[in-house]
Design a protein that fits this description.
Elements lengths: L10 E3 L1 H13 L12 H9 L12 H5 L1 E5 L19 E3 L7 E3 L8 E3 L7 E3 L7 E3 L7 E3 L8 E4 L7 E3 L5 E6 L15 E7 L7 E3 L2 E6 L7 E3 L7 E2 L7 E3 L4 E5 L7 E3 L4 E6 L7 E4 L3 E2 L7 E3 L7 E4 L2 E7 L7 E3 L3 E8 L7 E3 L8 E3 L7 E3 L8 E3 L7 E4 L6 E3 L8 E4 L4 H7 L5 E3 L11 E9 L17 E5 L4 E5 L5 E6 L3 E7 L6 E4 L3 E4 L7 E3 L2 E5 L6 E7 L8 E10 L5 E9 L4 E7 L4 E3 L2 E9 L4 E10 L13 E9 L11 E7 L8 E4 L4 E2 L7 E9 L9 E6 L5 E11 L4 E5 L2 E6 L16 E10 L8 E4 L2 E4 L5 E2 L3 E5 L14 E3 L6 E5 L4 E7 L5 E6 L4 E5 L6 E9 L3 E8 L1
Length: 896
Amino acid sequence: MKPNNSRKRTLNINPMKKLFILLLLFSGVINAQIVNIPNANFKTKLISLGVDTNNDGQIQNIEALAITDLDVSSSNISNLTGILSFLNITKLTCSNNALATLNVSNLNNLVELRCNNNFLTAINVGGTNLYRLDCSYNQLTILNLNGLPNEPLFLDCNNNNLISLNFGTLSSLSTLNCSNNQLTTLELSNITIIYYGFNCSNNLLASLITPLSGSVYCSNNQLTSLILNTYNTDVDCSNNLLTSLGVSGHTGFLNCSNNQLTNLNVTGASFAKLNCSNNSLSTLDLTNTSIGGNDSTSGIDCSFNQLSGFTFDNTLISNFKCNNNLLVDLDLSGVTLTKSIDCSNNQLTNINFGNNSKTPTINVKNNLLTSIDISNCFLITGLNCSDNLLSTIFAKNGRNEYIDFTNNPDLIFICADQDQISSLASVALSTTAVNSYCNFFPGGKYNTIAGVSRLDADNNGCSTLDFGYSNLRINISDGFDIGSTFTNSTGNYKFFTQSLDYVLTPALENPLYFNVAPTSIAINFIENSYLTQNQDFCVTPNGVHNDLEVIIYPVRQAKPSFDSEYILVYKNKGNQVVSGSVNLNFNDTLTDFVSSNPALDSQTFNTLTWNYFNLLPLQSRTINFTLNINDSNETPPVNNGAILAFTATINPSELDEVPNDNTFAYNQTVVDLYNPNNITCLQGENLPSSQIGTYLYYSIQFENTGTSTVANVVLRQTIDSNKFNLSSLQILNSSAEVRAVITNNVLELIFEGINLVGVTGNPPVGGHGDVLFKIKTNNNIANNASVFQKAGIYFDYNFPIVTNDAETTFGTLNSQVFEKDNSVKVYPNPTKSIVNIESNFNIQSIELYDVQGRILETILATKTISRLDLSSQASGIYFLKIKTDKGSKVEKVVKK
């Protein structure tokens, strides 16, 4: 269907001529000659336009001479005979009719002719002064422009059947559109310039030399040779047979797709868009070529070639397509891409997206990639990396983008933002770990709040001469989420933030002992753009307060015949400098002292003593010591389930404001097999109800049981806020520098750069570490209720190792609690040493408790009869908790 190019019908008559005609008619001076117009539709149209000024139903010559602008389009006219009488016409529009021929020769005033959308097979325009000719959408086979003046001509002859186009003496055109014809040759040698545009697409041209022109469209021909003018701007030569092309120095856009190009020289060119897809290019060098500059319209499409190499300079483009090539390595770090990247169906083993933060969609499907990193793609909405050889995906960028990673059977790790983890894990293979611990910054852009806390011990203001206050908790809130961190060993802290407004508040364990300045501070950012604000805190003693604390915890579990390591942590929680001693009481008959650091100051049988001097306020120190555990053949023997009892004491305690934590009792259960990754409540599994609302002390041990070195370890815990007072949590010690982060009710203990070595030796032992913290339970926990703690331990990119549940039950042990197996009998009772336990059912375990609810010993059993030796215990009242296949029972036992 031909396009309808109809325009408003117009009729322009020279006013002076019209007046002259009227005067003649009025005076009856002349007898006018009638113009021969055989086509009734043409005559009717002229009359309807008012050409018949005397209303006699005919068109006289004098009436025709009065017309300068005539529009008879869309009037079903098949013959325009009579038009030659309109000698003064300058513009003729006769488009959308049924004309087969048209003769306007010698209408020397005619400058614009629109005869498009007819059935013209011949047209004669000789002797006119045309500067605009639109004869498109006709059936012309020959167009001869001889006789036209040498002026820039606008020529549109597209969609005809032209096999010949003769420009006569024309040397310039304003626009030439001869597309959609059957031209095999196009002689433009006399045309020196086409000012605005040249379109010869959809013809049968085999060669073409373009004149000086703006845009050139010569697509869909049979071109084997194309010589472009240096000043051509936009060039579309797609769908031809070109094997080489030089466009050096060109500007605009270039579309040379769907040719047979093996060589493309674009050196020095400056393109908004480049499309060279569907060719046979093996290399493409764009290093000296400017492409892009507009982030919404520019682009490069070099898809479906044989490219094995691709280089280009810094540029800004919207879309980049290099799919279906032979690319092995692609570096896009110097390019800013704002819409899409498609590098699918190549042989890529490496791709570098650099800082392409604006790219929304990326397609690298069907390559040989083993890893992909889109961490800096801050606006990405979709990534297709299916059908590769991926082992890792790094997508922690602050976006909740869609990721298609199907058909990557070797994928072991996806690093993503926390909000994505559950959805990605739900569709990942069972062998693919998903977490956010590939780095320890937020995904996307962020800011940093950093500073140092110092203790002003001499009350003269904090300075660099004052030591840093380690493990000071600093709370942060943006009005919606709350969190915390702790200062490191030198007193430094940092928060990575993505909101703009925050309030920081130091949280001292004993706020009455110290003043802190500022007590809280508002931090404001103008944007998320890697900005940093520093805020220091100065802690000053308030009054006189003495308060010491001591804890003992194991480095590893105790095993018969092996050395076992322990750590004593003692801290001055008060605000006065203190000197004194730390004592450890242990069972010297079951263990032997091996060594300690620092060295012992004294040992008397089962008591070890270390002196300390000038322990500063808020300062912590540690004592590492090693004991050797008896084996099963020594006297007395130590077997699986035996209890090693320790009591640590720090002095002086006379003036201590909180004397309860000057002594710490720890009962360790001996094991046959190590659990290298575990969590332990140091007070044990059972505590009296009086301990509800007080601190529980937890230690977490972790060990690299693999063969490769682990760079980073993260311990992640979700704290039950219904059971624990999260605001009371305090970090007490760690085997290496740790950054503790609390976000809402999640605790993350980050050991960045810990570098734990793999397993070596016999027995095999890997690099290991530990952390010690304390936290208060809530006061509203019911009697006989239990609290739990467990952690996920992340070693680099591996699945987390989930620890055991450290369960502690609060209640009063007596003979009525948990009485489920009434067949249990305990005798003799009282006893001096041996007590026998019998049941009608197999006994599973026997636990010995003192009256304070502390577990002293555990025996594992499998028979209906067992025995327990109390000879090493002091005289007094104890409780036995016996578990059988049927249930459990607690019996009170008196040791004489």
